[in-house]
Every structure is written in structure tokens, then in C-alpha cells.
Amino acid sequence: MTSKTLFDKIWDAHVVKEVEGGPNVLYIDRHFIHEVTSPVAFLGLKNRGLKVFRPNQTTATPDHNVPTINQHIAVKDELSRTQLEMLKANCTEHGIVHHDLGSEGHGVVHIIGPEMGLTQPGMTIVCGDSHTSTHGAFGAIAFGIGTSEVEMVLASQCIMQPKPKKMRISVNGKLAEGVTAKDIALYIISQISTSGGTGHFIEYTGSAIKSLSMEGRMTLCNLSIECGARGGMIAPDETTFEYVKGRKYAPKGAEWDKAVEKWKELKSDDDAVFDTELTFDAADIEPMITYGTNPGMGMGITQKIPTTDRMVGSDKTSFEKSLQYMGYNAGEAIKGKPVDYVFLGSCTNGRIEDFRAFTNFVKGKKKAPNVTVWLVPGSKQVEKQIREEGLVEILEEAGFKLRQPGCSACLAMNDDKIPSGKYSVSTSNRNFEGRQGPGARTLLASPLTAAAAAVTGVISDPRELK
After folding, report:
1. Which of 133, 162, 191 is the last residue of a domain?
2. Contact of 131 with 143, CB cutoff 8 Å
């Protein structure tokens, strides 16, 4: 019998038809939709006289365009309001479960799926959003799709996809204090570049990866596409099973035992062959921060911005343009640089563990007066936990205010925009020009590094501020 990778096992089990010399027709177990990429897909169905083929396998929630304050009143922005109304109407018409703004199940699409137990090992999962790779943390094949593909899945519960190549990234050793899953991701991207994973699906393994919590694993897989990969995944283990157990849509009773036995088989065979293999040492990773305008322009917080000495041609030009936009100079330290905004949230770092880490760090300290801080939980459940665990009181004592769930300042499709020229230390996933607002300057970092900036008003090493 041919040895297989974890990716091969799941992919091959979901192939409905192989197109000779072309893509596979792949069956999709779970489809998540939101208000931005679904309206045109539903319109396409209507124009073709089609219904959603299997509505029970689709779950909807608005997240990109929602405000994060005063969610009890009508959304002011007309376009955003229209998109929210269309999502609700389309879901009602087709019998799709819709977690509306303000409801108990509302939140960022990639956060509510795992919370509810909709995301499970061995699944194929898609969404019209690039960071669908988050769900790969459970040992699932999860990837983002375009609007026409959203329509395809709604109509047939299948999608046509070429099979990606396989990459294995091993991170071995013990992570140092203050180093998080976000730092692992930013370190890997800084090492292999934003195109290093192109054409591949990544499986993460190694002792440092296995030591991560499920929420840490979700953060790592979330950022897989920032190195150009189609997605990322981690083989399920006891940490995975413990997280899924008891959740609303998780199997129950005898079905649970059956499911776990099946899930235990979801791992790459010992002699499975990957197209690309990379290995990193956890000891080499320190708290990371980006200094440029793509996630690959990252470095350890104690390091200096690279120089252009060994760069030539378009690489040098692009690098210099990026630093010019950021207002930084090659060869200078980034620690101590002023910060205007701090954002904790997004599908990358908007979970309860992220808020616990941030809150624990700022306990007994005070928010720097020069910094505006937006703390945005990823879901109503996270918001509820923050309140039940008494984190709100600690945050308020330190001068912070909690906002309401949504994508918020990750992508500036709502009211939470960083003003032009201002510096934002953000726990989100992208630092492209204008990503957080026209002219905004974004520095990606972990919740701990964000907390350090929030209390000092400058870029700071969290290890120095216990």
C-alpha cells in the first residue's frame, strides 16, 4: 500500500471525480459564508433557478463590515447595512443557519466554527475568505475560495480544485518564554518569504507545534497563506479531541467514541513523501514584529531592520519603497519606535487565550496616554468569557475598553480604520499598504507584544516588562 501524507488521506477520500489532465471534483463537508463574498453567489443561483443543494452544511455570520460599538442600533453605513440584510434574507430563503449580529452565536466566521464544534478533524472546509486555513489546525483541509466558487459549493456541495503539492514544516525544541504561535508564524514567513509556500499545502509538525494549544494552532494555520501556501494543517491529537469534545455540534456518546477512533488515523505515514521539507529550531525564535508592508518583512524585536547591501534590482526597489511608506530606515532598531494604535483581535488573535494573555500582561499597569487601543473579541462567546472571567474589570482598571465582536481593524471595511500616517501594532494577519485604512502603517505582532506597546506607547520587548 502506498504511503500517504495526512493531506493525501483527507483529499483522496473527498474526490468525487478526477478530471483527466485537470482539477479534481472535491466534496465539501462544511461551507462557511459571510456578508461580503456571498451576495453575488446567491444572485448567481437565483439567475440559474437553483436552490442551495445541502443547506445544513453551510453556516453564515456577518463579520467583515459590522461595527464593534453600538451593535444594538442599525448599522450606519448603507453598503454594510445592505450586505447584512442580504445575507439574512438569502439564508432565510435557503434554510441556512445564520448567526446574526448581536445573537449568541455571532462572531468572526473562523472563530465561531471551532467554538461550536462545526470544525472537525478529517473535514474539507471552504469559505469565501482567504484565512479559512485557520480550520486546518484540527487536521482538516481548509482553504479560501472566490465568489464563483462559493456559488459552485452552494449549488453542488462540490468544488473543482487542482491538487496542491505537499510541504512539511517541522519546528523542534521548546519555545522560550514570551514566544507565541504568532511569533512562530511570523518567523517562518520571514525565513521563507511570502512566496515560499506557493503551490503547497503545509503540514506543521515537531515538538514545538505539538506543545501549542488549539488556539495557538489556529493562529499558526491562519497565517499559512501569508507565505503563499494554499493552506496549513496539523495532525489531530489528544489536544484536538479535548477541545472538540462537548461542543454544540460535536458527536455525542457512542458516536463520539467512533469519531475519535477514526480521527486517530489522521496522520502522515512514517515514510510518507513530501514535495518540500523544512525544519526550524524553536530556540531561534524570539518575539517577532514586522517593519514593512508584507508579512515576510518581519524580524525579532531585538534585531535591526535589514540593510539593502545584498539586494539588487526590483527587490531593492520594493524594499526601499516599503520602508519609505513605513517611515523607517534600513539598519535601525525598531524597539522604542512610537506607536499610535494597538489592535487586539481578528481571526488570527481574537480568541479567549489571546485576551487572557493581553489582560494578564497589563494587570497592574496603565495604558500609555498616547495610544488608542481597540480590544475586539472574535465572537459573542469570547466576549461572554471575557466578562465571566473578570477580565473586563482588570482591563478597565488599566485604562482599556472592550469593544464588540467583528473583524474590526484587520481590514478597515468597517468604522475601525487607522488614520493615515499613524502606526498600529496589530495582532491581525496582513500589513499591506492601506490594509488597516488609507495610509495606515501596520506592524504585525503577538498579543503579548501588542500589550507591551499598549502600556509603554512604543514598540517594546514583552520579556522586559513582566
Report:
1. 162
2. no
Contacts of 118 (CB under 8 A, 6+ apart): 30, 59, 112, 249
Whole-number pLDDT of residue 54? 98
User: Which residues constitute the domain of residue 456?
Assistant: 303-464
Q: If we measure between CA atoms, which residue out of 296, 300, 305, 295 comes closest to residue 328?
A: 305
Mind giving me the DSSP string for 84-119? HHHHHHHHHHHT-EE--TTSTT-B-HHHHHHHHT--
Roughly what angle, to the nearest 10 degrees, separates helices 109-116 and 380-388? 70
Task: Determine, yes or no, domain membership for 210.
Answer: no
Q: What is the pTM of this model?
A: 0.98
Residue 86: which CATH number? 3.30.499.10
Burial of 308 (C-beta count, 10 Å sphere; 0-12/13-18/19+): middle
Establish if 193 belongs to a structural domain.
Answer: no
Alpha-carbon span 197 to 143, nearest angstrom: 14
Final residue before a domain boundary, out of 162, 186, 216: 162
Distance CA 26, CA 49 (A): 23
Domain total of the chain: 2
For 326, list phi and psi in degrees, rounded to 5: -80, -15
Q: How many helices (H) and strands (E) does the chain have?
A: 16, 18
User: Helices 352-362 and 214-222, interaxial angle, to 10°?
Assistant: 100
Q: Which parts of the chain sit beneath pLDDT 50? A: none
Say if 261 falls within a structural domain: no
- Burial class of 105 by CB neighbour count within 10 A (0 to 12, 13 to 18, 19+): middle
Q: Tell me the C-alpha distance between 182 and 292, whole Å.
A: 17
